[in-house]
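Lab channel / #folding
Pinned by the channel admin:
"Please post every new chain as: sequence first, then the structure tokens as a reply. Keep commentary short and put observations after the output so the thread stays searchable."

First post following the new format, from NK:
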Amino acid sequence: MQVFSKKNNFNCHPYLILVLCLYFLIIWSVNLGIAPGLHGDEAWSGLKANEISKVGIHNLNGMNYYTGMLQALVADLSFKIFGLGIIQLRIPSVVFNCIGLLVLGFTFIKKKQRNWFIFFLIILSQSSLYVLSPRIAWEVNTFTLFLFSILFLSLWELLQKKEAENKFWTIIFFLVNVIGTYNHLIFSSISVSCFAALLFWTLYHRSSSHKALLIILAINFVNMLCLFLAMRYAFDHFNTVTNFTLPFIIILVMYLEVLLFRKVVLWDIKINLLKIPQLVIKGVLTLSLLMFSIFHGRAFIEVLSAYKLFLQVYSYEISPVFQITMLSCSAVFIFYLGVFMYKDFNNNSHSIIVFLIMSYCGVLNLYTLTSSFRYYLIIYIIIAFYLSYNVSKDPLKSIPLLLSFFIAFIVISYIQIAVLSTSTRPMRATKFYIGNDQIETSEHFLPKESLIDFLKKNKTGILEDFTDNHFFIEKPVEFYYLIDPWEQKTENKAIVKYDFTNPGTGFILQIKKNGD
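Reply from TO:
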């Protein structure tokens, strides 16, 4: 199975790669401490990092059972190097995303696929999801692109060589999946989808050409299941000694798994002899697409059209003209994706990627039926890989798609410049619907500087009369206090409410003294 052809009739200038990478570095780092406002989840990671630096790690789980402590650990390292601050809290996200791009660039250029990488960067540059997410210090934003890049490199190496003889990249593949899943459970959806896609592809084409890779994916699936159960039921009970020895135990287990794999791969397992009708496999994959369309389709289109992401993260209300423009670009994106997938489905060389996209659409529904824009980081990057490959073969056949990329890039860049060029832009808190009528809000990303100045001026840090979950106000205030403490008088209490009506700071702030 040759997943991608090396034939390419179009050559892009190599310096375009440098220009695009520089664009990402600028767009991810300019005014990093100002926009967006500090989110409660980011502040939690910063506070946890400070706790780790003082008392160490006493819990392997993060904010919940399906996340780990990697974000807090890299924040702790950043604080040790650069000191406490919001920029310092977000630097690791920018750094790891940049490293992810470098690893992908190394992989593509090493495999003589420079044009493919350039068009991949172009697609990423007009994605509000990947323009905005590295600016927010969430675990999925920080590590998804980085870990995906290593996963992609390891898979490519396993595909290009005899899997049974590639011990190093097999261990890397296992290790990256464990780290990514520990960071956030949703990362495991990549390898689970790869397993399902390759199994479906093997049965559909009745080919055993990648039996070894299928066995690797099956072993990895067991790893993911065991890790999930440990995160769900055991990690809260581990002690400091266990926390220290666990990484060494995991690496040892993976080495033993590779030895086991080298034995199992010699067995005469003839998966291709299972005669499942192709119509059944088509039906399962079509059902996967249908379920994704029902539960995630609308939200994914909102990711492509960008304006609700900017509304949530920047409280930036886009004009109807821009909304229609971005929706039109999204329609072109979906149209070309559908055309390429339909054409490649029965092509033995390229169909595995189509199987992967369709399988992932089904697998994501097993992880979550709710909408959150961060959940689409993985599916977007997989689709970006696929689209960029098809476009790179002959860009002249995809002129409307490339034009839509250019228009979306101009709109997104305009908004970024409008937001990042000033720190005093009037805004208001907003509530809106995403996906299947799920309520989302911009209030948690409001800049907190005006609130902190108010608290300092009135010498208080005691908050009450919230209009929403107090976590998203209290944690940022605690982190600001950690950075720069101020005098607080117990008799003064701040009443904090969100302003949904008048553009300004987004807050309605009042002071309440004892006896009032």
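NK: Residues 1-5 have pLDDT under 50 and may be disordered.
TO: also worth noting, The first helix runs from residue 15 to 29.
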